Amino acid sequence: MVIGLIPTGTASAVGEAISLSPTEGPAGTTVTVTGTNWEEHASRGLDVPINIGTSQLAVAHPAANGDFVVDIEIPRATPPGAVRIDAIIGNGGSASATFTVTESSNPQTTPQTGLAAAKCKQVKIVYAGGFNDSTGGTDFTGPLIARLKDAGLTDLPPVEQVDYPALHGVVHPPTELETNTDEKAVVAKLKFLLPQLPADGCFVLIGYSTGVVAIEKATSTGPDVISKNLGRRIAAIELFGNPKQLPIVTPHDVGAQYKGRTIRECNPLDTLCTGAVSQSCKTALLLGDKIGILRSCFPSEHLPPAYAKSGKADSAATEAVCLVRGTACPAAQTVESGDTLWELAEKIFGNPTKWRAILDANFAKIEKVARDHGFVSSDTGHWIFPGTDLVIPANA
C-alpha cells in the first residue's frame, strides 16, 4: 500500500508521536523510529505505515501500551537536506519528524584502497542462507554473477554454500550460543577455500536471514572470527533480510573494517528486518515449532524471490561489483510514483533528452519489472514503477 504525501494543512496527530534516532546522517542511514501514544491503533489492530513522501518504507505494529519501534533506511537517492518522515494515522493525518540528510558519502559506495579487491580477477561467491533455505541462493547470486560478467570478470568458480543446521530447518534453542554454530561454519568454509584462491582472487559473501547473523558474527564478535589475512581477501559483503526483529536474535554488526565493504538490503514490508513480528511467531520460536515458525515468522516479502522482484538483489550486485573492481559506484535513483525517464533525466542531468542513457543503463531491470507487473515490455521505458532502483550513468 502506498500512502500519498500529506498535504499542507492536513490535521496532525493528537497525542500520537514519533521520534528518530539518529536525526541526521547520509542517505542510506538506518534510522530507528519510535512511536508513543498509539493505543487506539493497537486496540483496533491497525498497522502504522512509515513514509517519506509517497514511498512507504516500513509498517509498524503498536503494542497494547501504544508504543512501537521500527527501523527504516533513508533511500540512497535522497538528496541532502531535511526530509519529513510520516507515521500515517487512520484518520488521514500523520505524526511527523524530520531527518536531515547530510553531504557525507555513503560508505557502501566508497572505493576501497589497499584491498586485494582492487586487482581482483577471480571472484569466489560464498552464500550463507536462511532458515530452511533450499534455494541455493540463486535469487541473490544470479544478479551478482550477471553483473560481474557484464564488468568483464569471467573467472567465476561455482558458488559455495555454507552448511549449518538452520539451513536445513533444524530448530535450536533460542540462545546466543546456538548462533555460534552458524558463525563457525562461515569461518570454516572460508578457511577451506582460501588456499584455492589465487593471489589475484577475492571473496564476495552473501548472507540472507539467518546467514546475516552468521556473517556478522564471523566478522566481529564470534568465537572464531575471520583472521586479518583472510579478511583482506573479502571484497564485498551483501546482507539481505537481517532477522533482527526476532526475539531470539541478538543484534550484531559486521566488524568496523568491513563496514565500507558491506551492502545491506531490506524490503520495505519485510517485518523481520523492519518491524515487529507477531505473537504467534514468538510462541513458535520459543517452542521450537518448525511448522509454526515457517507459517508465522516469514512474510512473503522476506522470501528470496521477493528480494529479486523488488530489485534489491540487483541493486546490491551493482554495488558489490564496484567494490570488487575498486571503483566508485554510479549514482542511484529510486523511482517514485509519477516519475518518467524523461522527467528523471531533466531532474538529474538538466536535459530531458538524456532519458535514453538511463534506459540503456537499466534496460534489463526495467524490462523485468514491467513484465512482473503484467506488461509484455516496458515499451522503451514508458512503463516504470515505484520502488525500482535505477543506476544513473556518470557520463550521459
The description of the largest β-sheet is:
5 strands, mixed
What is the number of domains? Answer: 3
Fold-level CATH name of the largest domain = Rossmann fold
Radius of gyration equals 21 Å
**Helix/strand/pairing category:** alpha/beta
Anisotropy-based shape = globular
Number of strands: 15
What ranges have pLDDT less than 50 throughout 5 or more consecutive residues? 1-13, 105-118
Count of helix runs:
13
Strand content: 15-25%
Account of the 3D structure:
- The chain is α/β, with parallel strands linked by helices and 396 residues long.
- The chain has three domains: 17-103, Immunoglobulin-like; 108-325, Alpha/Beta hydrolase fold, catalytic domain (Rossmann fold, 3-Layer(aba) Sandwich), CATH 3.40.50.1820; 331-392, Membrane-bound Lytic Murein Transglycosylase D, Chain A, CATH 3.10.350.
- The protein has helices at residues 39-44, 138-150, 176-193, 210-218, 228-231, 271-274, 279-287, 290-296, 304-309, 312-325, 341-349, 355-361, 363-372; strands at residues 17-21, 24-25, 30-36, 48-52, 55-60, 68-73, 81-88, 94-101, 122-128, 160-161, 201-208, 234-240, 262-265, 331-334, 389-392.
- Strand 7 (81-88) and strand 8 (94-101) form a beta hairpin.
- The longest helix has 18 residues, at 176-193.
- The model is unreliable at 1-13 and 105-118 (pLDDT under 50).
